[in-house]
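User: I'm writing a short methods note and want a consistent example. For Lysophospholipid acyltransferase family protein, I'll paste the sequence; you return only the structure tokens, no commentary, since I'll be parsing the reply automatically.
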Amino acid sequence: MRLVARLPMPAIHRLGAGLGLLVAYWPNRQRRNALMNIALCLPQLSREEQLALRKRSLQELGKTYFEIAYLWLRPAVEVLSLVREVRGAELLERRDGKGLIVLSPHIGAWELAGLHLAAQGPTAIFYKPQKYLDDLIRAARARSGAALAPITGKGIRVLVQALERGDYVGILPDQEPKADKGAVFAPFFGQPAFTMLLVNRLARRTGAPVVFMFAERLKGDPGFRLHCIPAPEGIDSEDDIEAATALNRGIEQCVMTCPDQYVWPYKRLRRRPEGALKVYTGPIDDTAVFRHVARLHG
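Assistant:
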């Protein structure tokens, strides 16, 4: 990682795109799962368009993996200088002494989005402790002043306290929750996805507004464009299904801004309603994937 971090970003992106092409052409589960998700979530695309999107998204994912070394190990001021534009920057302004919940889906460079957020003011970031490289991840994400709150009851209390002080709270909202408590099935691109209620609980308890923010990788430029988008109405609803649906609708809006840069191989639909067919199963060739998607669509 330290060797990769020494390279200029254009070279890192070329390496990542090359790795992505290998994954796109060599039969493997990542490739299968990406096509499965794209075909399920974007049925309006033709098969040729779905396959083309799969190829481009795996190239972008390769860039994501390689550029993490740069984003983690280069000085924070150097990394933050990669931000070329912030669209909707006014949405990051905190008003009336309230904190702000900022949601960064797995699109583009989410590590850069988190670093930029913490540079705007006191920030607590919800994160999952890792078995490997945890010290490096914590140090990298804390470079611009963020406090790391682990995915535990104690971590949730840290988030609540931060919002009550008027701070920022950063959350990755498109991960599948592990436990039944605090999650419900809600539509994600028309598919039932097990969806967290944490954002809803925090918004209702503290009155903090919710904003989506993600970093889009620019073409022909080693930099990034940050997008800030207001959360859909209903994200703070007392109705769990309405709140989770609003959360997923916000993620969908972010994804469709730059669909190539969403992490399509992630098993977002692994958990299924009772009696529903499993998604990520069967042979890994494309013909079998399309057959299975047809069965899932019913």
